């Protein structure tokens, strides 16, 4: 008789052990299906239909990409050069022709031959530095011989 009583206890113990494992199996099945659906959704993407961008031009333009600023290892020039257009280079000489003298006397106007590349601002600054005169207005013209006259 004692063996009979042991069997039901063992069966009861097995049944008790099976119930938690069944619960775990159901849990893993639920997790497994959840994971599979998540995988499917990830592979498929967020939107089910893919819209293609309509091309408005027949030619392809390469997209603009990142362009980094240069970081040189050493300077390409040892020292910065002196200013190319200083006041001595800007004003070559004062003009003392008959018509220039007439302008000086009658119109209170100085007349200079200046560098061909000098602009009015540079001429104004050069006159101020060299002669300590504030120019009210600067007119320029290029003479037939190719020199620039400022008055």
Uncertain stretches of 5 or more adjacent residues: none
Provide a count of the helices: 4
Specify the overall morphology.
Answer: rod-shaped
Largest sheet: 4 strands, antiparallel
Q: Approximately what portion of the residues adopt beta-strand conformation?
A: 5-15%
* Beta strands, count: 4
Q: Rounded to an integer, what's the Rg over CA atoms?
A: 47 Å
Q: How far apart lie the N and C ends?
A: 137 Å
Q: What spatial order of strands do you see in the largest sheet?
A: 1-2-4-3
Q: What proportion of the residues is helical, as a percent range?
A: 40-55%
In round numbers, the mean pLDDT is 84
Order of helices and strands: HHEHEHEE
The multimeric state of the shown protein is: single chain
Judged by helices, strands and strand pairing, the structural class is alpha+beta
List keywords for this structure.
151 residues; 9% strand; alpha+beta; 4-stranded antiparallel sheet
In short:
Helix content is 46%, strand content 9%. The protein is α+β, with helices and mostly antiparallel strands. A hairpin with a 5-residue loop joins β3 (140-142) and β4.
